[in-house]
Amino acid sequence: MRIHPEVADALTARRPVVALESAIISHGLPRPDNLRIAREIEAAVRSGGAVPATIAIVGGEPHIGLDDTSLQRIAESDTVVKVSVRDAAVLAARGGDGATTVASTAHFAAAAGITVLATGGLGGVHRGARDSWDESADLMTLSRTGVLVVCAGVKSILDVAATLERLETLNIAVIGYRTDWFPGFYLADSGHRVGWRVDTPEQAADVLRARRRLGTDGYGLVLANPIAAEDEMDRTLHDQVLAAGLAAAEASGVRGKDLTPFLLDFFHRETRGASVAANIALVLSNARLAAEVAVADAAGG
Ligand code: PSU
Ligand code: MN
């Protein structure tokens, strides 16, 4: 692993660091805006007082923290593949470039000693999983990787109720940030309750400390941060486009790791950018909150 010097210095000095995934840059957001947004996500972490560590595989080597040349390569190259945990070694062996999902970002972050990770939406159980068995490796990975993932819930393209059940089974606590409801990604509220709530970054950091004392810090945690009311998508438009997107995916036979990018792209095109605007707003908010939690964690010792 290559740890960027700024990140390495921060980790050595126990200053706050936030890990950022890169699949959202390469596969989750439209070009050419994705590079600018990637930089804005890093800036949001800095404005919250932490050092950003965007994670990706560059030239076969996992990088913890990217310089601008590498960030550009991940955002713009056509040969960058979406990398989950199982793909990492195959890609590393052949020296390719890969953008990491929440699962593989969590894996490399934990290996580097980073506890807090920010993303847009966590992967989860897909609709129709009863037949397709399509469940994101994000869930299984978090059941054995002790990072806190700050996200706006799971994407509404998923089966939210089933995802919450699996999170329970896998020992991954879900904590609402200033809410008792699990967020719905583009919408603030998915209609499902969460069991726990915190109202400040300090309270979230208290949970991280308690978990170290109790020895449950090998399991992941989800801090669910709803999109701000003024940034939410229109619910009627959301529901229409979701139904159309699911039908289009079914009709064109999209499966496996291509399904999430397909549906996100469908949303972005069909809503003429409204879903992109919501996606950007929520990911920046998550990056900022993740930084504040990392700061509170570092301050508490
Ligand atoms: N959240 C977003 N946009 C994304 C993703 C999450 O706002 O593109 C990506 C993340 O990298 C997540 C992945 O880990 O989608 C889940 O994909 P899959 O269902 O194939 O595991
Ligand atoms: Mn899948």
TrEMBL record:
<dbReference type="InterPro" id="IPR022830">
    <property type="entry name" value="Indigdn_synthA-like"/>
</dbReference>
<dbReference type="GO" id="GO:0016798">
    <property type="term" value="F:hydrolase activity, acting on glycosyl bonds"/>
</dbReference>
<dbReference type="GO" id="GO:0046113">
    <property type="term" value="P:nucleobase catabolic process"/>
</dbReference>
<dbReference type="GO" id="GO:0046872">
    <property type="term" value="F:metal ion binding"/>
</dbReference>
<feature type="binding site">
    <location>
        <position position="82"/>
    </location>
    <ligand>
        <name>substrate</name>
    </ligand>
</feature>
<feature type="binding site">
    <location>
        <begin position="136"/>
        <end position="138"/>
    </location>
    <ligand>
        <name>substrate</name>
    </ligand>
</feature>
<keyword id="KW-0456">Lyase</keyword>
<dbReference type="GO" id="GO:0004730">
    <property type="term" value="F:pseudouridylate synthase activity"/>
</dbReference>
<keyword id="KW-0464">Manganese</keyword>
<keyword id="KW-0378">Hydrolase</keyword>
<comment type="subunit">
    <text>Homotrimer.</text>
</comment>
<dbReference type="GO" id="GO:0005737">
    <property type="term" value="C:cytoplasm"/>
</dbReference>
<feature type="binding site">
    <location>
        <position position="102"/>
    </location>
    <ligand>
        <name>substrate</name>
    </ligand>
</feature>
<keyword id="KW-0479">Metal-binding</keyword>
<protein>
    <recommendedName>
        <fullName>Pseudouridine-5'-phosphate glycosidase</fullName>
        <ecNumber>4.2.1.70</ecNumber>
    </recommendedName>
</protein>
<keyword id="KW-0326">Glycosidase</keyword>
<feature type="active site" description="Nucleophile">
    <location>
        <position position="155"/>
    </location>
</feature>
<dbReference type="Pfam" id="PF04227">
    <property type="entry name" value="Indigoidine_A"/>
</dbReference>
<comment type="function">
    <text>Catalyzes the reversible cleavage of pseudouridine 5'-phosphate (PsiMP) to ribose 5-phosphate and uracil. Functions biologically in the cleavage direction, as part of a pseudouridine degradation pathway.</text>
</comment>
<feature type="active site" description="Proton donor">
    <location>
        <position position="21"/>
    </location>
</feature>
<dbReference type="InterPro" id="IPR007342">
    <property type="entry name" value="PsuG"/>
</dbReference>
<comment type="similarity">
    <text>Belongs to the pseudouridine-5'-phosphate glycosidase family.</text>
</comment>
<feature type="binding site">
    <location>
        <position position="134"/>
    </location>
    <ligand>
        <name>Mn(2+)</name>
    </ligand>
</feature>
